[in-house]
Amino acid sequence: MNxxxxxxxxxxxxxxxxxxxxxxxxxxxxxxxxxxxxxxYIDFVAGIAVNSLGHNHPAVARAIRQQAAKxxxxxxxxxxxxxxxxxxxxxxxSFAQKVFFCNSGxxxxxxxxxxxxxxxxxxxxxxxEVLSTHNSFHGRTLATxxxxxxxxxRAGYDPLPAGFRQVPYNDLRAMEEAIDEKTTAAxxxxxxxxxxxxxxxxxxxxxxxxxxxxxxxxxLIFDEVQSGMGRTGxxxxxxxxxxxxxxxxxxxALGGGLPLGAMLAKEKVARSFVPGAHASTFGGxxxxxxxxxxxxxxxxxxxxxxxxxxxxxxxxxxxxxxxxRFRFIREVxxxxxxLGMELEQDGGKxxxxxxxxxxxxxxxxxxxxxxxxxxxxxxxxxxxxxxILEKVLAxx
Length: 396
What we know:
- With 396 residues, this protein is α/β, with parallel strands linked by helices.
- It has two domains: 147 residues, Aspartate Aminotransferase, domain 1 (Alpha-Beta Complex); 231 residues, 3-Layer(aba) Sandwich (Aspartate Aminotransferase, domain 2), CATH 3.40.640.10.
- The chain is built from 14 helices and 15 strands.
- The protein has a seven-stranded mixed sheet with strand order 4-10-9-8-7-5-6, with helices on both faces. Strands 1-2-3-13 form a four-stranded mixed sheet. A four-stranded antiparallel sheet has the order 11-12-15-14, with helices on one face.
- The two termini are 35 Å apart.
- The model has no long low-confidence stretch (mean pLDDT 98).
């Protein structure tokens, strides 16, 4: 089928929950993808930070083939070797002692919220409230969209669950003033806001939150669904700031393109989850966890993390050069290969024009062009992508 035929099928049979671009991507290799009409694109979106190892990476493909020949799925009523191994490796490389597996970032954040409430009920005198921040994004379940600090995500779903409030991001005083000694159980933040416009907090913000949560005896939750698994040049973004959470959520890149999420927690908090407290039918199945192990190994031992740091500098410098040329570019910011270019105008038309020219990019918070290419991307693809972007910007 060609692009038009696939688009017609989508429009006829698939729920209209996405504003889709008029292309159907059917094949990929590395940092490039092709549509059903054979047109080639440089991929600076990577499935929205999912395909960290690019498309058709041999380690991912090999893990899928090998595990598919053995066992795709069994219930969590039984022990699952790849799940246990992946949990061990995540704990070894993080602050955590326990892992709960699920299928997505929203589910991981849902698990974190449930764990915080259960811990609050058992150990914090019945506290239940979760404080999050403006412009955050934590998912689209009823609980996680209520925690999300974007009105457009919450609109139309009233009445929303109680026990959630938002305060300005990167404002320690606002968070301190918002904490209610009787009800607040946890603070939920992204170490770097992705959907909110690639916002990096001031150096002391996350440290200040850690100190504040310790003083008030409440939990600190980091949503690293987008920033985790090497996206910033370190395995987890919190490592840049020298502070550890009590709970952390992962997804997106964790499964290398397969649906895999995880909630990591310290032992003292995780003990509130007992048999029957929470569950996920497909969470942590043999296939996704085998791929997760391959992804983690490749990130750490295969050089992808080092490449992210190196290519992140190349891309950042290239975007900064464009800022010097075009006055409507306000700022370039981010870490590793999670970068944003804030404009003085809406970025939607630029994204569309880049698509037509063979470059996939994304716009967050209306005016921030977001660049989240595969971590294995090379200088050649970055140079070609920047050249396309420069031509598009020149026409604005």
